[in-house]
Amino acid sequence: ERELYKTIRKKVNNTTKSVEFTRDLEQHARTYVAILNSDHVFWKKYGENARGYVATLNLLRMEQIRPLLLAILANFKQPQVVKALRLLVSCVVRVLIVGSRGGTLEKQYADTAKAVSDGTITNEKQLRAALEKLVPANSEFLKAFAVATVSKNYLARYYLRAIEQYSTPKLPEWVPSESTDDVTLEHVVPKTLSDDWSAFDEDTHRSYLKRIGNLAIMSATDNSTSGNEKFSTKKKAYRKSSFQSTKMIASQAIWTPTEIESRQEHLAALAVKTWRLSGDTRKPAVKKKSDKKKAAKKKTARKK
Fold it and tell me: How far out from the chain centre does Cα 232 lie?
């Protein structure tokens, strides 16, 4: 704080600058409050996607990125703000999974924020280019996600729900919540081993328990019926799940490190697409209209 005070005092050295500085503080303070609250009326002009991205950034608890958010909101035009928020969600997730590349995150985000404030960076495309040194590329992210272990349940729930949203076209853009009332996190190989899990010794169990491939999201009621049961019993609950990433577990005859690794590789491929390095609003892959029309014609022809 002392160093900050000295710096401000050198630059804000007359009445005019003092008034301007105070006005800037007041304006940015209001924006900062909105950054901390995705339900704030401030986000109405940016749309629901922007509101969801802000909710996600708060869920991920990446405080270092807030100066950059302030700079973007103060200098980018509305469409570019939404794209930039989408990009920042991907950046944060990739850094959480892989780790940052040299230097402190706070310093790198702050330098980028200054470039935005100075007008060097004016849109999402330029922002993406500036963050390339910080953010892991697709190949690096894919490799890291395929072996990632997640110790924090709120992060694991977010990763799995976001992938589920991307891979299920019918689902709307999901606004994250830390509530466990509707969705809980399930460990396929349970936290407490029994004789039913002979494929895992203590070391293997410790290594694979919190791997993303061994984690699944379920409704609270479904989760309460599985717990520490053997795999053949737990499969019945997974098969009934509305989450496709959970339901796919039920197709396995057994559950060993091999199955965990295979599922995680599948999720990693989806993760690259879910958190892609593009600022466009995420649109889940859907069948082309032409494909639907062809399918309808074939169906009609069969009836005839």
Answer: 32
